[in-house]
Known about the structure:
- This protein is 42% helix and 15% strand.
- It is an alpha/beta fold.
- Helix 1 packs parallel to helix 2 (41-51), helix 1 packs across helix 8 (217-227) and helix 4 packs parallel to helix 6.
- The relative contact order is 0.15.
Amino acid sequence: MNKLQQVAIVTGSARNIGRAIAIELAKSGIDVVLNGRSQSHELEEVQAEIQAFGVRSVISIADISTEEGANSLVKAAIDHFGQIDILVNNAALRRHVAFSDLDYVAWREVMQTILDGAYLCSAAALPYLKNSKMASIIFMGGMSAHTGSKDRAHVVTAKMGLVGLTKALAHDLSEFGINVNCVVPGLIDTVRGESAGKGTPEHHKKNTSLIGRRGDVSEVAQLVQFLCSDKSRYITGQTIHANGGAFLA
């Protein structure tokens, strides 16, 4: 095993960007803990693809919006690999509902998954990240948090909260050598299931990229992999956009 073998947790890694991140990290030789809220053949497919790269992986079924679930996910990583070097907070819900119809239960459901989940996983993993020689926390933001979007007040608010959390933790964790960054995908081709609500988001309809196409999930994953590598140790506290020029930060 490589002397600097790393272990990564990727929440919400059954499909789309989370899946691509898990695979990209595995390609670079990193062992990966895959996570979903429920068991699925998709997680097993990701695991099979990852193992083809000669690295180790484990599936941890856990609802990271709860303290018990976040602790369970971290415990699975430690039980199987004995360390955590990278935490990618990717799990999210992409609901669509007009603010006039948005009740508190729906508001909290999104907040708990995106924002509370990111806090809970980061807090649970922190003691082990402190022991890493090259630790990284990545939060997966959203372009709509920066542009605004119709019928997504809860999602926009939660994703912008990750920007603030990135800046705060970059200050708090720098003394331990832990880099913290936020990657913001925009206009990426992904599969949208029932949780998406009503199809293509409004900001996808209104915005186009300068390069004339939508992004591929692999392009976001490659950015995340770079931010977790030894080539990016001078980058922390940053919100980095990958959107083909659809939004210029």
